[in-house]
Amino acid sequence: MTSMSEHQTNGIQSANTQPPTNLKILQLNLNKSVQAHLELTNKKLSANWDIILIQEPHVTAFNYIRTPYNFRQIYPANRGRDGTTVRSAIWVNKKLETKHWKIIDIPNTNYITAIQIKGTYGKLTIFNIYNDCKHSRNEDKLRSFIIDNLDDIYRGRNDHMIWAGLQQTPPAMGQKRGYSPIHQNSN
What is the spatial order of strands in the sheet that 51-55 belongs to? Predict the structure, then answer.
């Protein structure tokens, strides 16, 4: 996939050497609230959640998003490049070894973040989308990305996708191949 990049560990070691088979995922919209963001980051989230998907995080004056202890921050790759505010972030628990997951770079947007987790079950790709429902640009960008990178995201029954923050499934996600990326036709 041309727009995926491997996540660096920066010397952090984790106790879990096996790929995850069960994930606890929290998804929420903080509505840019500093109070909600600080309250969330001050909780002991790492004991209860593996992945936290945030839409509309509070962004500081320095374009920084506070991240809870024991989590790795996933920003959009476009962060700070075009003057738009980051509207999507993912926090990945440090218990999930970086060798089992990687960041997926969705180019030219601050509204979509994604990661892909690999294990014996196949691949799980998680897309976190901020969708303001006033236009379809984010859905169009996600649709185009998935269609262009379908071989790396979804190859069959053992691969899965989650879209968080999207109010509806983007139409024609799998049109290029003639099947839905979620349910492959039986032939």
Answer: 25-29, 51-55, 88-93, 71-74
Q: How far apart are CA 154 and CA 152, in angstroms?
A: 6
Global pTM reads 0.77
Domains in the chain: boundaries: 24-164
**What does the pLDDT look like over 34-46, one tens digit per residue?**
999 999 988 889 8
* Check whether domain 24-164 has CATH 3.60.10.10, yes or no: yes
H or E element, residue 122: strand 122-129
Q: Which tokens sit at 34? A: 């500093």
* Cβ-based neighbour number of residue 54 at 10 Å: 28
Torsion sign (Cα): 153, 156, 159, 163: positive
